[in-house]
Amino acid sequence: MKGLCLLVVAVMAVGCHGCPDGWLDVNGSCFYFHQDQSMPWEDAERFCETSGGSLAKIGSAKELRAFYEYILTYSLSGSYWLGASDQGYEGDWLWVSDNSRVDRGTPFWAIHNGIFGWDHEPSGGTEENCLLLDENRKHYFNDVNCNLIHHPLCMT
Ligand SMILES: [Ca+2]
Question: Hey, which end of the chain has fewer CB within 10 Å, N or C?
Answer without folding.
Answer: N
